[in-house]
């Protein structure tokens, strides 16, 4: 194996802790430095994980940083990733990758000019549950996928996030914030999308924060918070995607895909694990036997139980792919197509018209048991 690639992180907010704590699980990468416009936040994370705290300029100039992880707010993803590429470093972005196809194509041009890689979250589709669903589809157990439903509905981030403001501004909302998990998983399971249609609504113009430390503070809402969409895929499948932060409770499954020969019930794409259920034609629905996929193994406390969390797997796959000279799974093409789908949904919600996709992509390579194990660092 070639040397580990040095990783620096820009953006030391809530999600950064997951990247820093989970990175040691994987080979091919080593966290070395972090930066933030708030140096106190950078210093706190640096102390917590024994890293260097640097300014953004210092991190971009550091010789031992090969890949920069962009964990800034979505509104500045493009600007920060552009700076990273212009500094001659690979970039891996949190979702959503960018906020427009135009921005993504510009980053692609900059990366190709310098021979650099771009990657982007989400990598939750690497999870054992979602790769099991992928294997069922690839093995023909469901026949051709013809339709499906997805539901991601709750009552907003203001009830748990310490600073939820940006979730309710353009560039976020349920489609661009939670949608990437669902849309990306649909693409890896079914393939690219050809066109979309949607209805969008903004039932509340402001929200009241109930989480600490800002409980009771009101924040404005400037983006739709309920969006019902239809996605037509290149293979002819039609999938309903309902996203909302205006729902207190519901009884819908996260994802169901209907094929010519059967149905698969897929757990929440926001997570790596979960139960996959399957029915073959008229036979009763059954829970599939445990699949020995390493990214389905619970490894972290979540609420009252354990959950599987392997975030940073996509970053590790990109680093190893660079060394091996192969395509990485959380690719720019996949991320940009997902952005195309999501921004198309929002445009359709505004215009009331069908929106054709400007981009397409290949399904990322499946990540089976063997391939997943190859991403993990050897236990000491």
Walk me through the structure.
- The protein folds into two domains: 116 residues, 3-Layer(aba) Sandwich (Rossmann fold), CATH 3.40.50; 194 residues, 2-Layer Sandwich (Dihydrodipicolinate Reductase, domain 2), CATH 3.30.360.
- Strand 2, helix 2 and strand 3 form a beta-alpha-beta unit.
- The longest helix is centred in the last third of the chain and has 20 residues.
- The chain is an alpha/beta fold and 380 residues long.
- 30% of the residues lie in helices and 24% in strands.
- The protein is globular and about 60 Å long.
- The model has no long low-confidence stretch (mean pLDDT 96).
- It contains eleven helices and 19 strands.
- The chain has a nine-stranded mixed beta sheet. Strands 3-2-1-4-5-6 form a six-stranded parallel beta sheet, sandwiched between helices.
**Shape label:** globular
Question: Strand sequence of the main sheet, in spatial order?
Answer: 16-15-14-13-7-12-11-8-19
How many strands in all?
19
Percentage of residues in DSSP E strands:
15-25%
> What is the second-level CATH architecture of the largest domain?
2-Layer Sandwich
Domain count: the total is 2
> What order do the SSEs take from the amino end to the carboxyl end, as H and E?
EHEHEHEHEHEHEHHEEEEEEEEEEEHHEH
Query: In DSSP terms, counting alpha (H) and pi (I) runs of 4 or more, how many helices?
Result: 11
Mean pLDDT: 96
Q: What value does the Rg take, in angstroms?
A: 20 Å
Low-confidence stretches: none
Under CATH, the homologous superfamily of the largest domain reads Dihydrodipicolinate Reductase, domain 2
How would you characterize the largest beta sheet?
Answer: 9 strands, mixed
Distance between the termini: 17 Å
What proportion of the residues is helical, as a percent range?
A: 25-40%
CATH top level class name of the largest domain: Alpha Beta
CATH topology (fold) name of the largest domain: Dihydrodipicolinate Reductase, domain 2
Assembly state: single chain
By helix and strand content, what is the structural category? alpha/beta
């Amino acid at each position: 194996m070639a040397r580990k690639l040095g990783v620096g992180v820009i953006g030391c907010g809530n999600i950064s802790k997951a990247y820093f704590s989970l990175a040691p699980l994987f080979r091919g990468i080593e966290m070395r430095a972090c930066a933030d416009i708030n140096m106190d936040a950078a210093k706190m994370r640096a102390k917590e994980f024994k890293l260097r705290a640097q300014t953004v300029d210092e991190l971009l100039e550091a010789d031992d940083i090969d890949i920069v992880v962009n964990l800034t707010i979505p509104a500045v993803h493009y600007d920060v990733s552009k700076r990273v590429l212009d500094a001659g470093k690979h970039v891996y972005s949190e979702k959503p990758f960018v906020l427009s196809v135009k921005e993504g194509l510009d980053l692609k041009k900059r990366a190709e000019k310098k021979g650099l890689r771009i990657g982007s979250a989400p990598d939750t589709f690497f999870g054992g549950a979602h790769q099991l669903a992928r294997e069922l589809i690839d093995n023909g157990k469901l026949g051709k996928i013809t339709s499906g439903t997805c539901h991601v509905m709750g009552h907003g981030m203001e009830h748990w996030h310490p600073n939820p403001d940006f979730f309710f501004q353009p560039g976020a909302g349920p489609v661009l914030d939670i949608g990437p998990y669902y849309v990306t998983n649909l693409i890896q399971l079914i393939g690219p999308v050809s066109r979309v249609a949607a209805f969008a609504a903004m039932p509340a113009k402001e929200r009241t924060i109930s989480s600490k430390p800002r409980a009771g503070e009101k924040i404005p809402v400037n983006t739709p918070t309920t969006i019902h969409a239809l996605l037509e895929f290149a293979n002819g499948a039609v999938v309903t995607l309902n996203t909302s932060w205006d729902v207190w409770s519901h009884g819908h499954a996260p994802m169901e895909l209907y094929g010519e020969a059967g149905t698969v019930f897929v757990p929440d794409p926001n997570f790596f694990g979960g139960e996959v259920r399957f029915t073959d034609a008229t036979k009763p629905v059954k829970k599939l036997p445990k699949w020995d996929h390493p990214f389905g193994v619970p490894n972290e406390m979540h609420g009252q139980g354990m959950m599987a969390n392997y975030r940073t797997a996509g970053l590790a796959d990109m680093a190893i792919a660079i060394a091996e000279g192969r395509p990485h799974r959380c690719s720019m093409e996949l991320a940009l197509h997902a952005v195309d789908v999501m921004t198309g949904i929002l445009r359709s919600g505004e215009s009331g018209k069908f929106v054709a996709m400007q981009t397409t992509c290949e399904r990322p390579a499946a990540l089976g048991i063997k391939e997943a194990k190859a991403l993990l660092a050897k236990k000491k």
